[in-house]
């Protein structure tokens, strides 16, 4: 069977994306525990610092991602993959060398401003592939993201328990640099978009947001990102609270994250294929089931109970993301895909900032467990909104 050019390119994009996400996931999940090594030991202060660390990159990424998406449409999508992976390597290297929590936050800000590998690689993958295969391409690239989050925490946690958290950040930087090299030598773009001298960033943004349904999709992307990130500053600390083996916190945190990643990989691949066939209703069903299991995390008493519930929740959450991305891709012209994914990346980052910060604040005020109930509420809201949007799209297709 002959392998077409876009398929070969997609293969290397998938590898580069997997490596980059593996790099981020090798260290970032353990940041709340790393902050303890940097001197933050008071429980309430630790929860606030964890919330700040988890959220602050989302703030700079919210601001910068639409700009990077605009540049992708104007000057090429491949340069954006190079910027994102190299920026990540520099930021993670800095995190591994810091001596204070303030310096750690500074490099986290830099990470948010200059990275965004998920958006960069996905934009190039969609632009270089046939439009009728969008669902397949999105599912493949999503599987890279989830696979990276599945592999890395397990290995990174075990290494952190034996050699310290600092080493995991240094290894992460090396993996991001490897992703950069893969982009340089193996990933190609057919032709960079024609450069335009007129800077029409705001005009492009307004034009995309006024397309029917796009604003609603962006709102759901924001909620989706918030519910995926609200627990990030809480999860390692919750495991620390319920664990009976405090000497293996890194490994246990990695195990919980990795099992969820494996479940998400399976969901991403299956959902992409199903959504390509027009069965969008399964995304709404996934959101409802995810809301139920996320609320159940409130009652977890052991690490294994947490791992099971968290994995099932992640599997059903994985059914939402491909649907939102496919709906967005099919709503905008391909020439504007970079700007559209830039805006969606901004919505993701804004949800990341809001979710992580509110998760840390809620944990400091109300305790760790109530955060999981909030995730369930967010997912239920997404399910209701998705149901309405899918019905609206189907009615419009019927009337065409």
Automatic annotation (TrEMBL):
One of its GO terms (cellular component) is plasma membrane. The chain crosses the membrane at residues 12-35, 47-68, 80-98, 104-127, 134-155, 167-187, 207-226, 255-275, 282-301, 307-328, 340-365, 371-390. Pfam families: MFS_1. GO terms for molecular function: transmembrane transporter activity. It is found in: Cell membrane. PROSITE patterns: MFS. This is Major facilitator superfamily MFS_1. The lineage of its organism: Bacteria, Candidatus Moduliflexota, Candidatus Moduliflexia, Candidatus Moduliflexales, Candidatus Moduliflexaceae.
């Amino acid at each position: 069977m002959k392998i077409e050019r876009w398929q070969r390119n997609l293969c290397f994009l998938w590898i580069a994306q997997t490596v980059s996400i593996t790099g981020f996931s090798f260290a970032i999940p353990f940041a709340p525990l790393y902050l303890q090594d940097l001197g933050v030991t008071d429980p309430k202060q630790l929860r606030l610092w964890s919330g700040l660390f988890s959220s602050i990159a989302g703030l700079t990424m919210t601001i910068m991602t639409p700009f990077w998406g605009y540049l992708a449409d104007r000057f090429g999508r491949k340069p954006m993959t190079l910027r994102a992976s190299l920026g990540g390597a520099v930021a993670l290297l800095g995190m591994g060398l810091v001596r204070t929590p303030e310096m750690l936050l500074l490099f986290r800000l830099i990470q948010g401003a200059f990275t965004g590998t998920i958006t960069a690689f996905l934009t190039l993958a969609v632009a270089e592939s046939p439009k009728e295969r969008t669902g397949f391409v999105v599912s493949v690239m999503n599987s890279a993201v989830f696979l990276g989050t599945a592999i890395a925490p397990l290995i990174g946690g075990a290494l952190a328990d034996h050699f310290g958290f600092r080493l995991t950040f240094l290894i992460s930087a090396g993996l991001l640099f490897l992703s950069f090299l893969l982009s340089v030598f193996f990933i190609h773009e057919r032709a960079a978009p024609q450069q335009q001298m007129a800077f029409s960033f705001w005009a492009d943004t307004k034009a995309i947001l006024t397309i029917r349904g796009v604003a609603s999709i962006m709102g759901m992307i924001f909620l989706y990102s918030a519910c995926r990130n609200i627990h990030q500053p809480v999860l390692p600390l919750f495991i620390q609270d319920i664990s009976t083996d405090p000497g293996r916190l890194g490994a246990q945190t990695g195990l919980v994250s990795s099992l969820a990643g494996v479940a998400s990989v399976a969901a991403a691949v299956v959902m992409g294929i199903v959504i390509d066939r027009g069965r969008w209703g399964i995304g709404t069903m996934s959101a409802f089931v995810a809301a139920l299991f996320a609320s159940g995390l409130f009652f977890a008493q052991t690490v294994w109970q947490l791992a099971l519930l968290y994995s099932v929740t992640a599997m059903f959450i994985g059914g939402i993301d491909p649907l939102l991305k496919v709906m967005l891709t099919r709503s905008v012209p391909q020439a504007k895909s970079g700007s559209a994914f830039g805006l969606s990346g901004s919505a993701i980052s804004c949800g990341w900032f809001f979710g992580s910060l509110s998760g840390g604040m809620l944990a400091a005020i109300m305790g760790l467990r109530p955060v999981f109930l909030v995730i369930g509420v967010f997912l239920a809201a997404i399910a209701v909104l998705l149901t309405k949007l899918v019905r609206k799209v189907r009615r419009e297709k019927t009337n065409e």
